Amino acid sequence: MRIRPSFREWYVRHAGELDAVVLDIDGVLCLDHKPLPGARALVGALRAAGTPFSLLTNDGNHSKRQKCAFLKACGVVVSEAQIVSCGDGLLELGAARKLAGKLFFVLGDLGRPCYAEAAGLRVTRRQRDLPRCAGIIIGEDNYDWEPNINAAVNHCIRRPATPLIVPNPDEYYGVGPSTVHVAAGGVARFIRRVLRTYGVRVDPVYLGKPHQPIFRHHHGMLERKLGGKVRRARVVLVGDSLASDIRGANRFGYQSALVLTGVTNPDMLRTSRIRPDMVFRGL
Fold first, then answer.
1. Whose CA is closest to 21, among 43, 5, 48, 41?
2. Pick from 90, 118, 201, 234: CA 20 to 30 A from residue 103's CA?
3. How many folded domains does the chain comprise?
């Protein structure tokens, strides 16, 4: 595929064809809490043209308040209302399944303030509470994998109908040049494989990109903001991940723009079956 130099240059020429721009955060605007080239200039161009823009992230272990602070430190100032996180899916899931007030065992962080608690769920990280839990939520970071994953596996063996909820479906996320960190989706699929080997089938409930809950939540927010129906083909999503950003945008009907500043490199692009509408070296 043709690799163009700058998304901002393309946007300036095509702004009149768009109703909104959606940006991933990590790998697009910043990487490992450091700004990526062109981030401030693009946000400035969007504001100058009056194009509505929002941020769509699979980071479910940092709250919107925390993400705003990280971005501000990178020179990109946005409001919490402009951010949609995979953690927001807990609101709709909790309402649909009547989970308010129920206790959930959580692996890792879910933001501060906590997305699960904001959705009305009660949380515990004590393994001894597992028999009383209505389900398991897999967050990110700051937990001891060995005892917690074993506890989750054995609880699912005893209670295979236990919901295994995964806000971030990603296998990994980038933390620097050629460096990644195993994400919640990778942990969930490991647990699923172990259980299948044992003869127990558990299907995780994924909330973030590329799955539909986060896109439905975002598009509903966008239409409420603009006061009417928004054609999906007039929205472009800019992301760095073929598996989550581009696949999710393609499935939902958004235009998809890949930037090569995060987890995807040209070799991965050449061999992938997932095809973005456009590819850029950076913003």
1. 43
2. 201
3. 2
